[in-house]
């Protein structure tokens, strides 16, 4: 493949990734959404974060689902700090440090 082909593939991938994220904002920029829609949309970040956390807490390598104990051990102090401080950056730092310490000790 030539360099031009690779550049066009990268540009195409960027557009395919970028357009579906931007087009909804363009359409609703000047529209007043009903309160029920705004309330429903406010739950989306919580649902996505919960799905990511639960997916990592569960171990599906076997034929049955088990709890991934090292991840769960890092999750507990991270959750406590998240509830206590309500700071995303502090929560992320505590989570990374907790997981690093657990992996170092195991």
The value of Rg in angstroms is 20 Å
Shape, per Cα inertia axes: extended
- Mean pLDDT level: 90
Helix count equals 5
Pattern of helices and strands: HHHEEHH
Measured distance between first and last alpha carbons: 46 Å
Class based on secondary structure composition and strand pairing: mainly alpha
Task: Note the main sheet.
Answer: 2 strands, antiparallel
What is the strand content? under 5%
Spatial order of the strands forming the largest sheet: 1-2
Describe the model:
The chain has 106 residues and is mainly alpha-helical. 78% of the residues lie in helices and 4% in strands. The chain has helices at residues 3-28, 35-42, 44-57, 69-85, 88-105, and strands at residues 58-59, 66-67. The chain has a two-stranded antiparallel ribbon. Helix 4 (69-85) packs antiparallel against helix 5.
